[in-house]
Every structure is written in C-alpha cells, then in structure tokens.
C-alpha cells in the first residue's frame, strides 16, 4: 500500500468518527435547538382547546360482588303427550303462541275409538240381557233347591252361569268406560296459562303414547336459574334480594332467592340457585342473565375511569398542582368499581387529576 492510499484511508476514518460525534451531540441536545427538558409540559401545548374537568383521587366504599351466569326459565314446563295412538287431525297452535287453560291444543282422529265405544256399548246391552236371564234362573233354582225340587248339580250349574254372566257384564262395562275415556283423550287441552315454546308434530303425523307433541311454559312468574361456586354456599340464603342483569332487555332488576340446592355438583364444584323475577317488559324464558352476589366491601383509592389513559402497556394520568403546569404521571391500576378505577400506586389520596372530555381511559365502555 503506497503513501497516498494510507492517507486516504486515514481521512475516511476521521470523517466517520467526526460524523458519529456530531450525531451523538445532536441527540444530546448540544446541537439543533437543545435537549427537551424532562418534567413539565404546558397543558396548552398538549391539549389545545380541549375542555377538561378536575377529579380528586379519593377512597370510596364499594361493595364486593361476584357474578354468576344463568338462564331465565319458567316456573313450570309442561310436555304435552298423547295417551293413545292416532293421527293428528288439527293442531291450531304454533311455537310462540299464548294459550289459556282449557284451550284446545290438539285434535286426533277418533274414528277407531268411536267404533270401539259403539261395540262396547252394544256388548253391554247384550251382556245385561244375559245377566238378567242368568239372575232370574239363579233365583228360581234357589227356591227350587230349598224345596229340594231340583238336584244339587242343576242348582250349581245355574249358580255358575250367574257368576259368569255377572263377570262378563262387568268386563264389558269396563271396556265401554275405557273407550269413553279414550274418546276424551282424542282432544287435548292446555292444562296451564302460558306459551307454546316447542312444536314437534304437524297435522297428519301419527302420534303415539309418550311421544311429545308440544312443550308449554307456564306464564306468570319467571325464574333465573344460575350455578354458583361452592365457596358462596353460605353467603346466599332463601329470601335474599339480589341484583340481576338481563342484557336482552337492557334491564337490571332485583330477584328473590326462591330455591337453593344444598348439595354441590362434584364435577363443576357449584350449586344451583333459582331467583324469582318480577314482571319485566319483554322478559322471556331462555334469556341469558347474570346475578350479582355480594361478598363484602372495600375502600380502594380511585379516580374517574376517564382520567386514566392507556399508552402502550402503560397507564398515565395528568396531575394538576397549584401554581404549576399539569404533570404527566404513570400509575398502576387495578379493579373497576362502577365508573371509577382503582389506583394501586402512583397517586396519593387528595391529588387532583384532569379528565379530558371526549377521551376515555381503560376500563371505560
């Protein structure tokens, strides 16, 4: 390597080092307008023209409560099933229809039942005639036997015919009564006031005993059935008033604990409770609900939820101090209590924070 090349290489190294030094000086604020000072920045520079209000960090008593989810159910569910086999001739209700007690729900084909009833009634007439003759003969042979005018064997035959006719008459009368009852089963009426929640058959389908036709839910009082963890078994008792939230109707109502299963489910480690719900417009069986169970109280240090802002993974507030510009301060937050947020560190009780309108902190919404 000649002298010229060595000088050129040395000059390149010097220029690179000089550029690096200038870059470091600029980053430190020595060049280019100076370093941005830490600490205070005026509110006007950060929030030009944005309105705000002042909130105070304070300790407030809040009730601890635990949420349990459940489903709104009717107090009573009725499964309508036929007692005889037959074709469905008329089914005038649909799922969702309101029904009243005694209203006709299903009419079934009754021709076979009526035919059997007529045969049974004819058989009753015939059996009554036979029984009348047998009874008359029996009474006559009783008198003759007392007078010893007939042999014992003939008297016993008359007695046996009387018993047979009596038994046959009884059997045919039972068959007639059964046919009459079955005829009544061809028309099914609603046993309750309520709603049709399920329809399993249509006109023309063949119904069989034990096969569900309709499912009804009794109207009136509704229940919220929820599963509660076993640790709360001693917290809730019959008659307790508990807040219930039903999102579908956007309402929070108060339910009364009506049933409590004393044994816990070993699989879920929970036990079942049922709360009686007051009348609420639009409330229907099957809706999702939440019940809130109080478990104690706490007095955390809190600020308005809207005062806390999320910056990446950090939470910050603007703290107002007398005679000084607002200061930005990082805080560590905890639980949400209604419209306020717990502050675990970074603020002291009584300090004032700014709440900018139109800006929401974490936990809001």
Structure description:
The chain contains four helices and 22 strands. By secondary structure, it is α+β, with helices and mostly antiparallel strands. It folds into four domains: 43-61 and 299-356, conserved putative lor/sdh protein from methanococcus maripaludis s2 fold (Beta Barrel), CATH 2.40.420; 66-75 and 218-296, Elongation Factor Tu (Ef-tu), domain 3, CATH 2.40.30; 83-108 and 187-217, RNA polymerase II/Efflux pump adaptor protein, barrel-sandwich hybrid domain (OB fold (Dihydrolipoamide Acetyltransferase, E2P)); 111-184, Helix Hairpins. The strands form four sheets. Strands 1, 2, 17, 18, 19, 20, 21 and 22 form an eight-stranded antiparallel sheet that branches. A six-stranded antiparallel barrel has the order 3-12-15-14-13-16. Helix 3 (111-146) runs antiparallel to helix 4 (152-185). It starts with a helix and ends in a 9-residue tail after the last strand.
Question: What key phrases describe this protein's structure?
Answer:
365 residues, alpha+beta, conserved putative lor/sdh protein from methanococcus maripaludis s2 fold, Elongation Factor Tu (Ef-tu), domain 3, eight-stranded antiparallel β-sheet, six-stranded antiparallel barrel, 4 helices, 27% helix
């Amino acid at each position: 390597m000649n002298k010229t090349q060595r000088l050129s290489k040395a000059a390149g190294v010097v220029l690179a080092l000089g550029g690096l030094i200038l870059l470091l000086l600029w980053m430190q604020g020595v060049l280019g307008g100076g370093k941005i000072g830490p600490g205070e920045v005026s509110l006007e520079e950060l929030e030009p023209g944005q309105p705000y209000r002042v909130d105070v960090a304070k300790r407030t008593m809040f009730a601890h409560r635990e949420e349990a989810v459940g489903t709104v159910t009717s107090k009573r569910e009725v499964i309508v099933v036929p007692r005889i086999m037959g074709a469905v001739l008329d089914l005038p209700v649909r799922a969702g229809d309101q029904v009243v007690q005694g209203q006709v729900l299903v009419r079934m084909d009754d021709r076979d039942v009526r035919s059997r009833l007529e045969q049974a009634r004819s058989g009753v007439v015939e059996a009554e005639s036979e029984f009348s003759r047998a009874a008359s003969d029996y009474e006559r042979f009783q008198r003759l036997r007392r007078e010893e005018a007939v042999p014992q064997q003939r008297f016993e035959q008359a007695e046996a015919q009387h018993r047979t006719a009596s038994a046959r008459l009884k059997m045919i009368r039972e068959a007639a009564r059964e046919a009459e009852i079955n005829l009544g089963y061809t028309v099914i009426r609603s046993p309750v006031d309520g709603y049709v929640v399920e329809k399993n058959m249509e006109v023309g389908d063949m119904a069989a005993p034990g096969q569900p036709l309709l499912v009804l839910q009794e109207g009136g009082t509704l229940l919220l059935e929820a599963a509660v963890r076993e640790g709360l078994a001693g917290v809730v008792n019959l008659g307790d008033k508990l807040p219930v939230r039903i999102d579908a109707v956007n309402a929070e109502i108060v339910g009364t604990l009506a049933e409590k299963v004393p044994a816990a489910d070993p699989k879920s480690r929970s036990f079942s409770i049922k709360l009686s719900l007051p009348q609420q417009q639009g409330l229907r069986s099957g809706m999702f609900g939440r019940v809130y169970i109080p478990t104690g109280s706490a007095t955390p240090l809190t600020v308005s939820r809207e005062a806390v802002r999320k910056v990446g993974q950090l939470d910050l507030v603007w703290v107002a101090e007398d005679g000084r510009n607002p200061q930005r301060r990082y805080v560590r937050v905890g639980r949400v209590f209604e419209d306020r947020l717990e502050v675990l560190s970074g603020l002291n009780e009584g300090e004032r924070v700014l709440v900018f309108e139109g800006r929401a902190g974490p936990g809001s919404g």
